[in-house]
Design brief:
heterodimer, A: 104 residues, mainly beta, Immunoglobulin-like, 0% helix, B: 473 residues, mainly alpha, 2 domains, two-stranded antiparallel sheet, two-stranded antiparallel ribbon, 21 helices, 5 strands
Chain lengths: 104, 473
């Protein structure tokens, strides 16, 4: 997944994801493949039905360019996660991905 | 109690332009929903069209029906536009005689439920906005061509939902003193108030839905438009309190309706209302996706239409036919009733309305109460989306009530509906069956219990929301 000139890759654990706590790991690289360190990541999970309150979480940098967050998914189904990224130089961008088929 | 005699609300509702005053805010909100639905973010929880339509409007509508009456038809924004258009269009045609029943609107009501699932309307601001546009266009088109309140009485699916649901409401528009009507010579409540010197010119409409107040019984087909209140020269029409659902238990000749027991279309509407409530709730829980996948494999298809069509046929046609057919047959055999099976089925189908109402109430109140405050950040966000962030940054974390708390309300609402259905079926049995009324009551009570049991099972299942991708395992 690419947003602007950065490449995002995500991992979800457990697999398949279930309602409750899931760990989301994001790897961010620039165009040369170097890890993008020092960014601030705020995650927002939304469901497809109106009236659902989004689930918010922060991510910690566990290695340079590797960020980890724990989200509490409150319902089964498909989730859309938006990652609000603030890079170390102050630039801001959003990156979206989906978690499909979260099981009850 | 007469709501029109209450100090503040009464004097407001009695004003000549009360309806317009109530319609204008809803029209503005509808316009904002269309605008945001078409041009705003397409994530449903962030959009006014989806949030207000599928969370707040539906929830508020059913709660107002429970606590008061059909006040949403009173404030209907579609009728505001239609009334404005009627200043330019003067329809002369009557709605075709063969369509003067509920069959078309039942079809549209089922189509609405189907389209809701097929297009995942709850997840689509774009389609929700177009649905609102379609309602405005439909009301305008139908009532530009045909006289009276044709759209409301014979077409509008929301109207039919409200008509059936309002049979359990605690208020109805009714005559205060029937003796006054006996001596009334003008019958303005149905004819309208005419210009003295030009009797063909109406200066105040009478009932456009053909409900003659002195012979009106209950809320079916009443939009609470209050034209009759305005037209009555004797100030003899009020919004009166009553015992909810009693109108389902009696079968007098009703103005504009006829006898319930002779209206197969109304009975089918009542059945679709009840079983449609179960089906609509079923669409929001985990087992429906497993069933869809299983059906897709069985039919060897990877499109949703035939799968959904099968589910709708099963739950809205086969299941009700089977259950009501069996209940009617047992009634006839066990009680020795001489009434034809079809007549029994029609008459007792009305007893399913309260349990149906309880199911809709449980479902809609869940979305309303758990997402109650989401309207605040969505409105903040909508203003910000169009570069006018006067309401500040959206507070996305504002929650509603906790789902486990709301679940208690849901079970309470279904139980209330069940009690209503038991009372209605028992009342019909006692008043209309001379021999063995209890034997008549038991099959219909069992049917209500089955529906309530199904509702309790549905409400205890984990909710699940996803776009269906058939054939993916």
């Amino acid at each position: 997944m690419k947003t602007a000139d950065l490449t995002f890759a995500h991992e979800i654990s457990p697999q398949p994801p279930r309602v409750g706590k899931v760990t989301i790991t994001l790897n961010i690289q620039d165009t040369s493949g170097a890890p993008v360190a020092g960014a601030h990541l705020a995650l927002e999970g939304n469901m497809s039905h109106a009236g659902m309150v989004p689930v918010l979480a922060e991510a910690k940098e566990v290695q340079p360019g590797r960020y980890q967050s724990v989200m509490e998914l409150s319902m089964a189904g498909d989730w859309k996660v938006t990652v609000h990224v603030t890079l170390s130089d102050g630039r801001k961008l959003d990156h979206d991905f989906e978690i499909k088929g979260v099981e009850p | 109690m007469d709501l029109l005699r209450l100090p503040l609300a009464g004097s407001l509702l009695k004003k000549r332009h009360a309806r317009t005053l109530l319609q204008i805010p809803l029209f503005i909100i509808s316009a904002a929903m269309i605008f945001h639905g078409l041009l705003g973010p397409q994530l449903a929880p962030r959009n006014l069209a989806t949030t207000l339509t599928w969370v707040h409007f539906r929830g508020a509508l059913i709660l107002v029906l429970l606590l008061a009456g059909n006040f949403f038809c009173l404030a209907c924004p579609f009728m505001l536009v239609r009334n404005l258009a009627r200043k330019f269009f003067h329809p002369v045609r009557n709605w075709p005689r063969r369509l003067r029943n509920k069959w078309l609107s039942i079809g549209l009501f089922v189509a609405m439920l189907f389209v809701y699932e097929w297009f995942d309307l709850w997840a689509s601001p774009w389609w929700t906005a177009w649905l609102i546009v379609a309602y405005f266009a439909g009301a305008l088109l139908i009532d530009a061509v045909f006289k009276h309140a044709t759209f409301c009485k014979f077409v509008c699916p929301i109207g039919q939902f409200n008509f059936v649901a309002s049979t359990v409401s605690p208020f109805e528009v009714a005559v205060r003193d029937h003796d006054v009507c006996e001596s009334c010579a003008t019958k303005d409540c149905i004819r309208g108030v005419r210009e003295v010197e030009a009797p063909l010119v109406t200066i105040q409409r009478g009932c456009e839905l053909a409900l003659f107040q002195p012979r009106k019984v209950g809320n079916v087909d009443c939009t609470f438009c209050l034209d009759c209140v305005q037209a009555c020269p004797h100030d003899n029409v009020g919004i009166m309190s009553r015992v909810p659902a009693v109108e389902l238990a009696v079968d007098p000749m009703r103005s504009g309706i006829g006898f319930f027991s002779k209206r197969k279309d109304l009975a089918v509407l009542a059945v679709v209302f009840g079983f449609g409530g179960l089906l609509n709730a079923f669409g929001m829980i985990s087992p429906v996706y497993a069933l869809e996948q299983w059906l897709a494999k069985l039919f060897r298809v990877n499109t949703e239409f035939p799968v959904l069509a099968s589910i709708f046929t099963l739950f809205l046609v086969i299941e009700p036919l089977l259950l009501i057919g069996v209940a009617s047959w047992i009634t006839r055999v066990w009680s020795g009733s001489q009434r034809p099976l079809l007549l029994l089925a029609v008459r007792y189908s009305y007893s399913l309305v309260p349990i149906g109402f309880g199911i809709w109430l449980a479902h809609y109140s869940f979305h309303l109460l758990t997402g109650l405050y989401t309207v605040i950040p969505v409105t903040q966000s909508a203003f910000a989306d169009f570069g006018w962030a006067i309401l500040g940054q959206p507070h996305w974390s504002l929650p509603g009530l906790a789902p486990n708390v709301v679940q208690l309300f849901e079970f309470g609402f279904v139980t209330l509906g069940l009690l209503g259905s038991l009372l209605v079926s028992y009342s019909i049995a006692v008043s209309e069956e001379m021999v063995h009324p209890v034997r008549v009551f038991i099959p219909w009570a069992t049917l209500s219990l089955l529906m309530a049991g199904a509702a309790f099972w549905l409400l205890s299942q984990p909710m699940e929301m996803r776009a269906v991708a058939l054939g993916s395992g």
